Amino acid sequence: MLKLFNTLTGRQEVFEPIEPKKVRMYVCGVTVYDYCHIGHARSALVFDVLRRYLESCGYNVTFVKNFTDVDDKIIKRANEQRVSCDAITTKYIQAYHEDMGKLGIRVATEEPKATEHIADIIQLTERLVAKSLAYAVEGDVYFEVANYSEYGRLSKRRLEDLQAGARVDVDERKRHPMDFALWKSSKPGEPAWESPWGAGRPGWHIECSAMSMQHLGETFDIHGGGMDLIFPHHENEIAQSCGATGKEFARYWVHNGFVQVNQEKMSKSLGNFFTIREIFEKSEWSEEVMGEILRYFLLSTHYHGPLDFSDQALKEAKNALNGFYDLFGRLAEPGVGTMPNPSLTQAIERSRVGFTSAMDDDLNTPVAIAVLQGLRSDVNKMVDKGLSIEGRKEARQEFRLLGESLGLFQADTWQFGSAIAETLPINLDGTATVRLVLNESDIERMLIERREARNRKDFQRADEIRKSLAAQGVIIEDKPDGTSRWKR
Predict the structure, then answer these.
(1) Helix H segments across 254-364?
(2) For all residues of the chain together, what is the average pLDDT?
């Protein structure tokens, strides 16, 4: 039974959708004026995994994630580059899909843009004005927070204690410093749409309320996003949505923690961020491998807590994945084993129970991964004892099945490393010394030479090759049938 931490109530709650076996979920997307960084990737991945897991549990999930495509930052970037706002948003929406695709993040059921919902935004704003929850001033329309008695219930802040936040414009025309813009009057050179209050464009918060209600209804199951959105964005969404409809807006509010660098939140404003494409461009591994490394890294810490980003953390994730794919390589090897499968069946059953228990516990992915690591260890021992071909296939299928919820272990091949950067003097013919950069073909060639040396009983030469490879981090495992396998 899935439990999620609900920011609204401040506790874990059993997840019960409004309609049986149907889930309606909205997640705040990105403002498309620049490339996405690893912090954006974490949020996208968290809700991709939640969606995957809900679907694995038999739910039909309608997943909506928006693009904010009209905003001060977009206008500024367009002016700087002397292009239209459409040119900026089109470029970065495409970049978003490219970057998230590399991470295996699936496209949402619906991906609305704010500019496609101007009529819905105006209509929602009119409802708030009619209910005296909003007021117009010289072409701008503000939500009046003092008239919504439950303001602050998500962020647990009292209105009298609040000060104007970073994204709240200070304006003497406002009745309260925390009143926020629903509609902004147009300025020269800015995109604008006609409205009852004159030409203008929507405020940030009203966009998400209008888009989510249009696609999911006035009340839906899950609303998600990063913790930085709790206040003021999600707080304001609740106020304007509940104020307009008189109904609860979203039943479960799920928020992911920050990605940090040196204990500071990764953000563009601090300048300590790494874009997703920068990480891929600098990687020595293929896109498929790098995508899975990033997924593994991001899932290695519970989504609710902070996550420290570093090159070392990525290397550790790669090493951990190497262990899994090394096993998958063993499972694919030809040969006939005799070990009965009941031991495997029991190990798989234990893993399924442990994996489900971890995921049901507020998507505890680190524990779920630990369960999979335990299964990997068990299966490795079984292969050592001669697991049958049928058992090997069953084991690989199980890793695919459980890994699907995490988006892991779906690759058929794995890159254990590109060419080794160091060079090592070795004797290929017993006399000449050359320097090699060891790639996979080099290693295979050296294994052939070693096998030939052993066949002619030149054990000294065979041992030299083994030690040379070991010095490069390549381990040789000799099998009873006389063949050898290697791993980094």
Answers:
(1) 276-282, 287-299, 311-331, 342-360
(2) 89
